[in-house]
Amino acid sequence: MFHNLGGRGPAPRPEDAAVSDLMSAYWTNFAKTGNPNGAGLPEWPAFTASSQRVISFDGHSMAEPLPNAAEIQAMDTYFAWRREQAKGK
Fold this sequence. Notes:
Elements: H1 14-33, E1 53-56, E2 62-65, H2 69-87
């Protein structure tokens, strides 16, 4: 992200640079307008309770359903239970 590839380790691959460019474009658009979307970019839909879609940053970056929704729900349930337990003390 932010075109900060390199440093230690192997040289970045072309696909690494492509993902870096994509992420930088989204961040720049968001900083300028409050919306990450822009010309030539895969559409990044707003994340809502009824439409939980995220961008996968890989060789085929695109919006997709939240891949770990069940795990997130399990954590939400657990922490809700912990908050309820803490109220009783």
